[in-house]
Amino acid sequence: MIYTVTFNPAIDYVVQADDFCPGGINRLNSEKIFFGGKGINVSAVLRELGISSKALGFIAGFTGDAIENGLREMGVETDFIHLKNGFSRINVKIKSDLETELNGGGPNISEESISEFFDKLRMLKNGDTLVLAGSVPKSVSPNIYEDIPRFIADKDIRMIVDAEKYLLLKTLKFKPFLIKPNIDELKKIFETTLRSDDEIVDCAVKLQEMGAKNVLVSMAEKGALLLDEGGTVRRCGAFQGIVRNSVGAGDAMVAGFIAGFDGGNYEYALKLGTACGGAAAFSYGLPKKEEILALLESDGFIIDQSVFT
Question: Which 3 state secondary structure label does DSSP give 18?
């Protein structure tokens, strides 16, 4: 079973406005609502690929209920902890000449609720996959990214981590199966500029030496680079399309990699992951199965149809 963790789920209210004018009245061309959070995004794209997962995390209030109901309608299984106070955040994303985002803070998570979360982790069994993705609210200790893998260390769990600098680094000593920094996160981790693939590979090697088994680097319009646990460097260029949305592309890539690696095929995992990330960038929300397939077919790649059943 695949489990995803989202500490701070959100309702994303995405609007399109021509010539957005701060301080004035703006008429919207379109408005859409999505249920988001990095782990949730992974679960949603996995569902499009025909793969079941269970979304874990914390929700509160009427917005939390909407997130849970919306995901269930999408066919995503959930097992959220319902907080007693506050409400799950609403993020406003304005698409215009420039992208503007207003991100909510989310509810406080009590120690009691954290304990309840760890109790849920006891359900994990040998061979399961756990995806840790995204940031941690201020009410939660950043050490939780270290506490979780320590808590499940006695089981054979395939752990995947997609988080920023310090959260990611805290997990490396537990030897996660996959980490997915994007190029900007990689620069921050090593406090350097990255001008070539060789420099990116050097950073990936260092992350492997620190404990990561596989390092997948998402590089936006330049595609993705994978250093696998056998030491092989694999490169996949970006698919072609009009970029409409940058939110969720990295999460879609993680989902595609998980789905593509089901048979242990690194090349297909990288290709499917990159296609999922591209399809997300080319749509206004998370990609649909048909959009992902269209990209793969346009590139002439042999599609493993078993992934999409």
Answer: coil
C-alpha distances in angstroms, 43 versus 35, 158, 183, 235, 247?
11, 16, 23, 25, 15
Angle, helices 266-281 vs 249-260, to 10°: value is 150
All residues at 6 or more sequence positions from 191 whose CB lies less than 8 Å from its CB, including other chains: none
At 61-92, the pLDDT tens digits run: 999 999 999 999 999 999 999 999 999 999 99
pTM, rounded to two decimals? 0.92
Name the residue type at position 16: Q
Angle at which helix 183-190 crosses helix 197-209, to 10 degrees, equals 60
Q: Where are the beta strands (DSSP E) in 88-197?
A: 89-95, 99-102, 129-133, 158-162, 178-179
- Count other C-beta atoms under 10 Å from residue 276's C-beta: 35
Predicted pLDDT of residue 124: 97
Say whether 262 is catalytic.
no
Q: Which of 251, 262, 299, 304 is catalytic?
A: 251
The helix or strand, by DSSP H or E, that contains position 82, with its residue range, turns out to be strand 81-83
Instruction: Name the percent of the chain in helix, strand, coil, to the closest 5.
Output: 40, 20, 40
